[in-house]
Write a structure and sequence with these properties.
Strand order of the largest sheet of chain B: 1-5-4-3-2
CATH topology of chain B: Udp-n-acetylmuramoylalanyl-d-glutamate--2,6- Diaminopimelate Ligase, Chain: A, domain 1
Structural class of chain A: alpha+beta
Strand order of the largest sheet of chain A: 1-2-3-5-4
Number of helices of chain B: 5
Oligomer: heterodimer
Shape of chain B: globular
Shape of chain A: globular
CATH architecture of chain B: 3-Layer(aba) Sandwich
Largest sheet of chain A: 5 strands, antiparallel
Largest interface: A-B, 23 and 21 residues
Number of helices of chain A: 5
Mean pLDDT of chain B: 98
CATH topology of chain A: Heat Shock Protein 90
Structural class of chain B: alpha/beta
Radius of gyration of chain A: 14 Å
Mean pLDDT of chain A: 97
Bound molecules: adenosine-5'-triphosphate, magnesium ion
Strand content of chain A: 25-35%
Order of helices and strands of chain A: EHHEEHHHEE
Helix content of chain A: 25-40%
CATH architecture of chain A: 2-Layer Sandwich
CATH class of chain A: Alpha Beta
Distance between the termini of chain B: 7 Å
Radius of gyration of chain B: 12 Å
Low-confidence stretches of chain B: none
């Protein structure tokens, strides 16, 4: 399958200053590829929420974006602590964000629901103490 | 309506993002919960928020907001202003509160 783009950005835990830069870079690359604006918007939402979840909730990880002729795939991976109850985490309003994160406007418990809503395919997999992996696909056609 | 016209009419203080003042304003949005803003904000919105950390600029830039307006003379972190300059997102400061800002923006037809 023809791969038009394949990029990977490290995302550091607790880095609220640089948090969002991976999403911002991916957005620029998609614009250069001429991807439709409404699709870019959906990718931006999913990418940003996944990136900030790595910053806020994990010890660090990466965001990867792949573009094919018919779809965009985003993978967000981190090295833990993992999610104990995925069904609960996916509920709107559920959040374990720290007070500091809440003061900064995070912790609405809307990130994962936003990601799910903005894509055509959504996969989440996690093992406590090991990793969380989220993969989304948005169709281009 | 351009950001510049709002700045002039409401006598807002331009803290950063001078180069973005000719952006077109399309509606107003106010909320401080970032994931809520992420899913409801629309391109061109003027965004009123009390949040002042650099991630605000990441959100504004991803959603292509026309500007960020900080109410009640809240001071904005230097690092946020630097990022706003890089991204050409005007950061505007007002002595009015969020509600009063909405009322005034509504009168202007924003
Ligand atoms: N990468 C992750 N690693 C560990 N836990 C996570 C991760 N992502 C999400 N979670 C857990 O799932 C919960 C819900 O995530 P979600 O993104 O929906 O909300 P939030 O991040 O708490 O708040 P918001 O996204 O609205 O700022 C989090 O509070 C956290 O407990
Ligand atoms: Mg989140």
């Amino acid at each position: 399958m023809d791969e038009l783009l394949n990029v990977k950005y490290d995302v550091a835990s607790g880095d609220f200053i640089r948090g969002g830069e991976a999403s911002s870079n991916i957005k620029k690359l998609l614009q250069q590829l001429g991807v439709r604006n409404d699709i870019i918007k959906r990718i931006c939402v999913a990418c940003y929420e996944a990136e900030m979840n790595i910053v806020i909730h994990s010890v660090g990880g990466y965001i990867e974006a792949k573009v094919f002729s018919d779809r965009i795939e985003i993978t967000a991976f981190d090295n833990g602590p993992g999610i104990e109850n995925i069904d609960l985490a996916l509920q709107e309003g559920y959040s374990t964000a720290s007070n500091l994160a809440r003061e900064m406007g995070f912790g609405g418990g809307m990130g994962l629901p936003n990601i799910k809503r903005s894509c055509d395919e959504f996969y989440i997999d996690s093992k406590v103490g090991e990793y969380t992996k989220i993969k989304i696909i948005v169709y281009l056609k | 309506m351009k950001v510049r016209e709002i700045v002039d009419s409401l006598r807002l203080k331009v803290l950063a993002g001078e180069t973005g003042l000719d952006k077109e304003v399309n509606g107003v949005y106010t909320c401080d919960l970032l994931s809520w803003v992420m899913s409801h904000g629309k391109q061109g919105n003027a965004w009123i928020t009390v949040q002042i950390h650099p991630n605000v600029i990441a959100v504004a830039s991803l959603l292509e907001f026309s500007c960020v307006i900080v109410p009640e003379d809240i001071d904005v972190e230097e690092i946020t202003l630097n990022k706003a300059n890089d991204e050409a997102i005007p950061v505007l400061q007002s002595s009015l509160n969020a509600y009063e800002l909405c009322v005034e923006l509504n009168k202007l037809g924003a």
